[in-house]
Structures are given as structure tokens and as C-alpha cells.
Amino acid sequence: MSFLAAPATAQSHLPPPLPWTGASERLVAAPGDPWITPAEAAGFRTTPRYAAVRAWLERLDAASPLIALQRFGTTGEGRDMLLVRAHKGRAGKPVVLVQAGIHSGEIDGKDAGLMLLRDIALRGRDDLLDHVDLVFVPVYNIDGHERLSEWNFVHLRGPAEKGREANARDIDLNRDYAKADAPETRAMIALLRALDPILYVDCHVSEGFDMQYDVTFTYAGWGTYARHRATAGWLEGRFGPAVHAALTKAGHMPIIYPSPIDTRRPDKGIRYSPEGPRYSTGYGDFVGIPTVLVENHMLKPYRQRVLGTYVLLEAALTVAAADAGRIAAAKAQDRASRPRTLLTRWTPQEQPIGWIEQFRGVAFDTYRSPASGRLEQRWTGRPITFRMPIIGQRATETVTLPAAWWVPAAQAEVLDRLRLHGIRYDTLSAPRTLTLDEVELVDARQSPPLEGRYPIAATFRHQSVERTLPAGMVRVPADQPAGLLAAALLEPESQDSFLAWGFFPEMLHTASGTDAFVLAALGDKILESDPAVKSAFEKRLRSDPAFAADGNTRLFWLLERARTDDFGHRRYPVLREPAG
Questions:
Q1: 3-state helix, strand and coil shares in percent for the chain, rounded to the nearest 5
Q2: For residue 379, what are the β-bridge partners?
Q3: What is the layout of strands, in order, in the sheet containing 426-427?
């Protein structure tokens, strides 16, 4: 063992673990059991590679008629994406979809799922399939999973080697649901549409601070800020209490995921916030599928985390089966709703929206680190309780949705994503003249690269224009079950819009021009003849010294405002049809 490898392998850099024992320990197979899982056989010190997972599942598939192993996609590096369907054969039953390893170092769900599948198939827990089917994806980010290293996810207490957060293209798949750039994401969205599950569970492990809780979970917007209220109500009112009770009975300590405002100052509070459709939970909310984010606590031993995940998944199947009709009604209610507005920007509220009166934390002190040269935390392992504020959000920008969006036929990448997401649109068969809302980008700029894209940041100017739309233009109506998702993807102000993700880089090209002496004379004429442009020009000169000092930029700025034929330059190609 190399000198550098030793601290990570021994995990001596982590705070002391809290002692734990619980009834869920009885779930572990005995040594020598012919159906012991690879993680159990290793005493939960390691997690198996994908080939071993596949081989174990193929053996289980051969041994039990309740298990069917299927391929549903291909990763960027060509690996088969596999799912396991646990079922009793009756067609048409509702589905609970569980995925593990979207962040492949956070792999608790994989090993918990293998244990649960074994007990369903061979150990008498097939009653969990009486009213629902379980579809389990053991590893979502397979390419990242196979890049095992003790230096990945160094904040997690086990397993010894872990996969990477991102896929082979270095895309975080839990930031990709809206833009759908990765083949893994496209496969998962297609699976979601095919199954339309009554419950979608995404298994992760947290970062943050030390605390006594071991299994935490939450929903889009922590339920409080969910866009679709009926499914959020079921999650808060039924799922949460059922899972909390099951985990507590099994010896675990659950809580709604406490996302810290400041990890150095836990007493500053935890964050509840809206979410966009880039995340699994946000995407589920926007399409009307009850979705749960599991965030096991990073500093709990791997064995404890896996067992807690098993209990949570078992309880999830139970409550989903009991409430299948209620969930279906909530989904239908949400999909029948037609929101008129979309919240696009928010900021933390000045006062807490609530409190956890007895938050079960862990004490820490500070020391001066030779590595950082500053005071750092050192968690002591001593349990404490304190009053934890919950910090909510207040809206700072909300947009009113149009009746429809008009997308040019040339925007093939956008139309591809609309089809993938199941967003309905109609194609114009003949030219049509309409009064529409056109959006101009103001002070647009390309942001640093993020998740395989160059996002665009801007403010926007809306104006009413009359346009004759050519045949082939696509109309995306807001009045459809996926209308809220369409709004998140097509409204320019949305933080997860195609525009924000940089799907239209051509908008930022410089307007075509000519020689400076011609532009200067033309600019002088524009300033003489258009008071509004002159006022805006003078305001920009006063507020932007760099602009004022750049003669070419000044001339092109004036030309941009004079030309009406340059439709693409800094004009959003998607037009908005005002609501009646």
C-alpha cells in the first residue's frame, strides 16, 4: 500500500463513528449462505463491480420466475444499462421505480436492492409484489461506477473504493434531466415515460455536517415548494410518515434531508428551496410523478446505510401498494392542472419558516489546519441537540405563461428534446400571420462551461411584434399534461430553459456590418432620428466605461437596434403566443 493511499483506505481522516445497532441487522445473510450478496460476503467493506452485479442478477433471474433482467439503454462507453423487474406476472400493475448510483460513488441503493430482490424472490417477501411491480436499476451511471478509487467520495465512510460522480463525459446525470445530453439520461427518461411509475426513488448519500441521523430523504422543494401540489401532498402526508415509522422501528434515525445553509455553522439553519427539472426530484415534480430523494448520511458506516436503505425501500413498496389508487388520483389531478405562472427566481427569506426544536446534531471544535492554514472543524462524536431554523424562500421573479410557444423547424435539437420528454406539439402546414411576444436578450453573456454546455446568462426585453410564420414552424401548447415542463424548458427566464443551458449559441454572434466610416455616419443618423435609442445609448455610456471606450462596440450596438431584418441576433428564436 502506498503512503498516499493509507489515509483514504483506513478513513482515519473522518470523524469518529457513532455507535449503532438496530433490528435491521437481522436482514444480513449469514456467511456461507448460497444467496449472500457480494457486499454482505465482504462484510460491507467493498461493493462489487458491475460485472459481478450482473452475474449475480443473472443467477437470480434463472432461479426465480419473479425476476426478469432486461436491458433498457447503453452508456456512453457502450455498456448495457440493466433493470430488474420483480413481478408476479399480472400485467397492468402499477410500478415502483428505484434507481441507484446516478452518482456512482453513492452506491448504497445498489447493495440494498440486491438484498431486497433476493428476499422477494427466494425468502418469502414476494408479498411486496401483490399489488405493485418493482423495477430496480442497480447502477444508473455505470461508466462512472467502473472508475473505482479510494480517492472518490472521500467524505463517505465506505465502501473502500467508490465510483465517480459524473459519467464518462464528465456530466453529472442528476443535472441532466432537462437538457438530456447524456445517453444514460435519454434512456432513463424513456423508461420513465414507458413505466409512468406511481413512485420514483433515487438513492444518494449526503454531504454536509455530522449529525446523529443516518437515513434522510426529501422531495422536490421539500414538498413545501413543489410545483404540483397533489403528488407533493401524498409524499408529505403518506409516504414520509410511513417510511419514518418503519425506519424508526428498525433502529434507524430518519429525518427530512437537512440541506445546510453553512456547513461551518450548522446553527444557521437548513434550506428548503424550489427545484428545477434538471434534478430527478424536480423532473418528477414537473411531470407529475411522486419522486423521493434518499440522502443517507455520509459518515455512517456503509453497512448501516445499506440496511437503512433496505428498510426504506421495503416501506416504500408497502405504502405505494396500499395507496396505489390514491397516488393515481393525485397524478391525474396534477396533470389536469394548468398553471398560469412559473416561478423562475427566488431568494432566502429573512425569517425562518419553521424550526426543528430538537435537532440531533454532533458537537465540533476547531483547530488550525497546517494544510489550509485556517481554523477547520473537528467533529467530536459527542451527540448534542439544538434548535435548528428552517430557511425558506420568497419569490423574486414569476412569469405569466403564454398560450403556446412557436419553435422554428430549424431548431432540431430543441424539437428532439421535446419529443423525448413527451411534450406535444403541432406543425404549421401553411404560413400564418400572428401577433406574438418576441424576446430580445439584453447584456447576454456566455457563462463558464457547466455539465457539457456553455450556459447563457442575460436579462430579457419583451415586445409585441407581428410575424408571418412559415410552414413547418412548430406550436407547443401550454394546455397539455406536460405544459409545466414545456414552460420550464421554453420560457427564457427559466433557470433550466434550453436558452439558459446554451442551446442557442447563434444568438450571440456579432451582427454583420461594414466599414467603420459607414457605420459611424449611420450611427450619427440613428442618434439624430431616434430619441429612444439615443437615450438608451447615453445611459449605457454612463454606466459602462468599457462600452464607452470601445468604438466598434458602440457602432455595432447602434446597428443592432436599427436593423429589423436580423431576426437571429440576440433575439430568442422561440416566440410566445400570448394567452387569450
A1: 35, 25, 40
A2: 364
A3: 426-427, 474-477, 404-407, 575-577, 432-446, 456-469
Check residue 261 and report its DSSP letter: S
Give me the sheet containing 375-391, strands edge to edge. Answer: 270-271, 375-391, 354-368
Cell of 75: 452508456
Domain boundaries, the chain: 24-337, 355-395, 399-510+567-577, 516-562
* 3-class secondary-structure state, position 449: coil
Contact call for residues 231 and 330 (beta carbons, < 8 A): yes
- Residues 6+ positions from 345 with CB-CB distance below 8 Å: 395, 396, 397, 493, 495
- For 63, residues 6+ apart whose C-beta sits below 8 A from its C-beta are 121, 122
The model's pTM: 0.91
Count the neighbouring beta carbons within 10 Å of the beta carbon of residue 390: 19
Give the cell for residue 272: 428548503
User: Superfamily for 24-337?
Assistant: Zn peptidases (3.40.630.10)
Query: Nearest CA to 129 among 216, 64, 38, 204?
Result: 64
- Residue 391 CA to residue 349 CA, distance in Å, equals 7
Q: Is 290 exposed, middle or buried (0-12, 13-18, 19+ CB in 10 A)?
A: buried
pLDDT digits (tens, 9 = 90+) for 364-400: 999 999 999 999 999 999 999 999 999 999 999 999 9
Distance of CA 32 to the CA centre of its chain: 40
Q: Where are the alpha helices (DSSP H) in 38-127?
A: 38-41, 50-63, 108-122
**Angle at the Cα of 41 (from 36 to 46), degrees rounded to 5?**
130
* pLDDT tens per residue, range 184-235: 999 999 999 999 999 999 999 999 999 999 999 999 999 999 999 999 999 9
Strand duo 474-477 + 456-469: pairing? unpaired
Tally helices (H) and strands (E) across the chain.
Answer: 17, 19
The count of residues in the chain is 580
> How far is residue 245's CA from residue 252's CA, in Å, rounded to a whole number?
10
pLDDT digits (tens, 9 = 90+) for 27-62: 999 999 999 999 999 999 999 999 999 999 999 999
The CA distance from 224 to 235, in Å, is 11
Q: C-alpha cell of 61?
A: 433471474
Closest CA to 156 of 268, 306, 48: 306
* Chain centroid offset of residue 413 CA: 21
For 140, the 3-state DSSP assignment is: coil
> Taken in order 343, 349, 352, 356, is the CA torsion positive or negative?
positive
